[in-house]
């Protein structure tokens, strides 16, 4: 290898003078290619990176393997650099010092979306690769003073990462990068808001539009409404709704479409109102919109902002409606009870503070559950404070229960064996709790600390539950049996034929339909075997229109796809682009209209009648 200085290298294993490096290269095989280990490591690393994009694997496994690949490359390269006898100590220290200095400078100057983790896992492998390329070029061209070029290459590579911003990653771990001086979707949204709206930035403020729609009349649940996360039963099933399936002749008609603040919340529909959550700068907002126009009626704001590099800023949970009130949970733990008509706050608590807990890596995501006079929220606390139940009238704590330290699922009501109970899935497994006291009735599964479980458990009947199972790396069907005061939970089967990451599934006529990572599929509930797997829609979400046996898929790209709920084959009936941008939010169909949103925009479409 050509040294980085004009002084001869300290290499007792070589007697060749430094001037030999300036001579025409000799034939291959007459001397060792000192740079081949570095070239081989860089080539293997990038080959692995690009090849991994074509391999199907669990999202969590992809994330961990990506980090492990980067760490292994950096460790192997560093070991080679410091222990290669053909490189002098002076050269080793110079190369290490320049890499470290550039990294420290980049750490100070880069956008916060990259951070130390992004620089180490993404930027540093690029720096090592470009540095290796320069050493190869310097040797091939017999450059006599390579240190200057080496310094320029390293600092330029580090410098590039100070010019970009990361806007998160897709479900397949592909980064979305932009120049850091370009406005974010949130900044564009805030810049388009009216002066009156933009000035409403006081903590715990409720801002109401004076447009005649905020009358203060009680909001009452009506037939066909969508009052909570994934519907009234949290199973993503739409009842009493029939639509035209010929989208070529009668495509969905856009009613309104507009920008929104970032959030991974879904929407709920009650009467002629739509409720959702979003981030507005340093404020977390609960928003009430006119169903027909998208115009804001009121917004309640709290001084809170959650952000992380993978999914960005904003709330993760979906509002819940019950008896004229809206219950919401923010990503940092703020639990609000608001009047649905006016947005007036009845009470507010911070579940994370009360449980002395730190929100999980991707924020508190559980949508509140109202049952039996209490609202139940997940707090990720220890010492029996995983789930907290608050009295709906006063906001006082009614009970607490252990429920794992990591979960992105939501508590769910079910009747199993004739007994009402609360189901909750976390890294402690699936539990059934007594609604009035929080007492644990039964538990299934071994603890898997840190497992990012997001899927809702799906009761199939009075004794069976279908759930995401980390032990099976897919789904599991369990049987529950009650013997007196004790319960027994046994696994009937576990299957990897359908492996959802954070994408809930639906059940129809003995089959489960959902995402096997980025590809849609169908699973037989009797055997746990795959029926079919087809349709690359990314990491999206799905609804079941039960009356017609239809599946409405909201793809990760913002495209809406209509499928037949056919257990024998994949049948696509229509598709259209509804919104733009990465879309992980759950779609909603209510009153013959489709509502979709992501972290950038929201839209309402009218579905034609059959």
Keywords:
five-stranded mixed β-sheet; single chain; disordered N terminus; 38 strands; globular; five-stranded antiparallel β-sheet; 610 residues; Methylamine Dehydrogenase, Chain H; alpha+beta; 33% strand
What is the spatial order of strands in the main beta sheet? 3-9-8-7-6
Main sheet makeup: 5 strands, antiparallel
Q: Architecture of the largest domain, according to CATH?
A: 7 Propeller
Q: Could you please say which CATH topology of the largest domain applies here? A: Methylamine Dehydrogenase, Chain H
Poorly predicted sequence stretches spanning 5 or more consecutive residues: 1-33
Please outline what is shown here.
With 610 residues, the protein is of the alpha+beta class. It has 8 helices and 38 strands. β13 and β14 form a beta hairpin.
Structure description:
With 610 residues, this protein is of the alpha+beta class. The chain folds into 2 domains: 18-179, no CATH class; 217-606, YVTN repeat-like/Quinoprotein amine dehydrogenase (Methylamine Dehydrogenase, Chain H, 7 Propeller). The chain is 20% helix and 33% strand. It has 8 helices and 38 strands. Helix 1 runs antiparallel to helix 2, helix 2 packs across helix 4 (115-140) and helix 3 packs parallel to helix 5. The longest helix is centred in the N-terminal third of the chain and has 26 residues, at 115-140. Residues 1-33 have low confidence and may be disordered.
């Amino acid at each position: 290898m050509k040294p980085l200085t004009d002084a001869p290298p300290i290499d007792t294993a070589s007697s060749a003078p430094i001037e030999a490096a300036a001579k025409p290269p000799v034939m291959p095989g007459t001397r060792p290619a000192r740079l081949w280990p570095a070239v081989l490591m860089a080539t293997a690393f990038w080959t692995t990176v690009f090849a991994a994009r074509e391999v199907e694997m669990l999202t969590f496994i992809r994330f961990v393997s990506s980090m492990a690949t980067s760490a292994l490359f950096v460790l192997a390269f560093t070991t080679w650099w410091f222990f290669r006898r053909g490189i002098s100590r002076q050269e080793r220290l110079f190369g290490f010092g320049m890499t470290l200095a550039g990294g420290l400078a980049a750490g100070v100057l880069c956008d916060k979306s990259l951070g130390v983790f992004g620089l180490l896992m993404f930027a540093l492998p690029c720096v090592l690769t470009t540095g290796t390329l320069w050493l190869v070029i310097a040797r091939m061209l017999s450059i006599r003073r390579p240190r200057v070029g080496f310094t320029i290459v390293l600092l330029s590579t580090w410098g590039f990462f100070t010019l970009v911003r990361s806007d998160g990653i897709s479900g397949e771990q592909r980064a979305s990068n932009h120049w850091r001086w370009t406005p974010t979707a949130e900044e564009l949204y805030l810049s388009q808001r009216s002066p009156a709206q933009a000035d409403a930035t006081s903590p715990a403020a409720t801002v109401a539009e004076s447009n005649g729609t905020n009358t203060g009349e009680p909001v009452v649940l009506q037939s066909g409404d969508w009052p909570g996360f994934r519907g009234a039963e949290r199973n993503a099933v739409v009842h009493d709704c029939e639509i035209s399936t010929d989208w070529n002749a009668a495509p969905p008609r856009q009613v309104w479409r507009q920008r929104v603040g970032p959030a991974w919340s879904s929407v709920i529909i009650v009467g002629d109102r739509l409720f959702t959550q979003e981030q507005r700068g340093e404020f977390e907002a609960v928003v009430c919109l006119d169903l027909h126009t998208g115009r804001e009626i009121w917004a309640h704001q709290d001084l809170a902002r959650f952000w992380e590099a993978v999914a960005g800023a904003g709330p993760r949970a979906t509002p819940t409606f019950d008896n004229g009130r809206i219950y919401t949970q923010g990503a940092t733990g703020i639990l609000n009870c608001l009047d649905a008509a006016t947005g007036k706050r009845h009470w507010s608590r911070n579940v994370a503070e009360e449980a002395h807990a730190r929100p999980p890596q991707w924020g508190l995501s559980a949508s509140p559950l109202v049952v039996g006079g209490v609202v139940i929220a997940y707090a990720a606390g220890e010492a029996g404070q995983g789930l907290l139940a608050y009295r709906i009238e006063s906001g006082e704590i009614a009970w607490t229960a252990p429920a794992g330290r990591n979960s992105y699922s939501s508590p769910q009501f079910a009747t199993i064996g004739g007994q009402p109970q609360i189901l909750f899935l976390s890294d402690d497994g699936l539990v059934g709790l007594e609604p009035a006291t929080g007492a644990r009735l039964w538990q299934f599964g071994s603890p898997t600390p840190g497992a990012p479980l997001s899927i809702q458990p799906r009761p199939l009947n009075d004794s069976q539950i279908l759930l995401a199972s980390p032990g099976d790396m897919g789904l599991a069907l369990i049987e529950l049996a009650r013997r007196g005061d004790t319960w027994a939970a046994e696994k009937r089967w576990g299957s990897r034929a359908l492996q959802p990451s954070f994408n809930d599934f639906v059940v129809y006529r003995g089959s489960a339909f959902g995402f096997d990572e980025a590809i849609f599929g169908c699973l037989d509930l009797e055997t746990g075997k795959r029926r079919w797997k087809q349709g690359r829609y990314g990491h999206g979400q799905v609804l079941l229109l039960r009356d017609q046996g239809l599946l409405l898929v909201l793809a990760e790209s913002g495209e809406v796809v209509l499928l037949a709920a056919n257990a024998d084959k994949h049948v696509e009936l229509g598709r259209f682009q509804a919104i733009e941008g990465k879309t992980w939010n759950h779609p909603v169909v209510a009153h013959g209209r489709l509502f979709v949103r992501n972290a950038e925009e929201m839209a309402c479409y009218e579905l034609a009648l059959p």
